[in-house]
Amino acid sequence: MGVLAGKVALVTGAGKGMGEAIARLFAAEGAQVVVAGRTEADVRRVAVGIGPAATAVKLDVARRADWEDAIASTRNAFGALNVLVNCAGVSVAGSIEDASEENWRMHMATNVDGVFYGCQTALPLMKAKQELGSIVNVSSAFAQRPVGAFAAYCASKAAMTTLTKTIALHCATQGYNIRANTVHPGGTETPMLERTFAESGLPREQAYALFSKIHPMGRYGKPEEVAAACLWLASDASSFTTGAEINADGGCSIRE
After folding, report:
1. Quick check: helix, strand or coil at residue 173?
2. With contact defined as beta carbons under 8 Å apart, do 38 and 106 qualify?
3. What's the CA gap between 203 and 223, in Å, rounded?
4. Residue 153 annotated among the catalytic residues of the structure
5. How confident is the model at residue 193 (pLDDT cuts 50, 70, 90)?
6. Which of 153, 176, 208, 220 is catalytic?
7. Could you tell me the CA-to-CA distances from 238 to 213, 228, 232 in Å, in that order?
């Protein structure tokens, strides 16, 4: 029996990359999983690959109406929600001098507003059965150790991290038995990382080597490694952990 047996989890950004790895691992550990993402074909592919324990939901996290529909679909499919993982995110380069207003607002809409809408709309269903619940928000090592070339991304992930702590405090003081924690991945081998390489303007091999240097362990992470950190926070094994920041970043945030 898996560590998430009997639990229902909703994972955003689950059509690819880290979100897909999280959804697959959670299902393998016994959870019923709502595979949520903006591209319908991707989330359906993942849900079909998981099997009867999963259902696919099209969700643009920056739209509150989409969240309301996703929570209703979760209730209809499984009758409960124990775990919410906010993994959907965007990352586009831009310093304080060259980032456009559109760049700034896009990051805030997805990386901050999306988490706010998700937690706010999910809490009533998570509270309903008075069971142990867990919110896991996937931030970034750049929230702790920012870089100048990603102003909006770093700021949005830092805002997400602090928002998570306010949620943890609120749920604890209200006696909801729902925890909220943050995972900070470093560079992880996903389509988003490939886009970062492309945006650098360097040959891929050179960009790969350059960015890997900010990880003291000398390599990038794998989606499955980030998923494993999320699994611990989602499970009852972390029942006394709330408001925490878990680094799965190869030492990126403590580099010299």
Report:
1. helix
2. no
3. 23
4. yes
5. confident
6. 153
7. 32, 13, 6
